[in-house]
Design goal:
By secondary structure, the protein is an all-alpha fold. Helices cover 72% and strands 0% of the residues.
């Protein structure tokens, strides 16, 4: 992976964030500006998908796509983790399906919430204490 690519993606993302903040306080924007923003978003997404194609094996991409059908936010989070690891140089070879599964298991153990059920019974006049 080339560092200029990553830097370009970071700069696009910063521009998107700055545009969103400007849009929130400035009200409506002209159609040309909105179109440019949409194009920038689409280009950033294409870059993201291209990087994932380089990082993941076809089997791992297929599994991630199936996860995205059911839980898009979880798939996006896993993609973010993989991309961050690649940017930091922690991934030196393509991520196989088995490695993706182990990564998913790690994420599941970190994000699993314990559910606690408490039953409170109403006390009536006829109940003995």
């Amino acid at each position: 992976m080339a560092d200029p690519e990553l830097e370009a993606i970071r700069q696009r993302r910063m521009q998107e964030l700055m545009a969103q903040r400007g849009m929130g306080s400035g009200g409506g924007q002209d159609p040309e500006k909105q179109k440019a923003q949409e194009e920038a978003k689409m280009e950033a997404e294409e870059q993201r998908q291209l990087m994932l194609t380089r990082i993941l094996t076809p089997e791992a991409r297929a599994r991630l796509a199936r996860i995205a059908l059911v839980k898009p936010d979880k798939a996006r989070g896993v993609e973010d983790v993989i991309l961050r690891a690649a940017q930091m140089g922690q991934i030196v070879e393509k991520v196989s399906e088995e490695r993706l599964i182990s990564l998913l298991e790690q994420i599941n153990t970190q994000t699993t919430k314990e559910t606690k059920v408490t039953i409170k019974r109403r006390q009536s006049v006829l109940d003995d204490e």
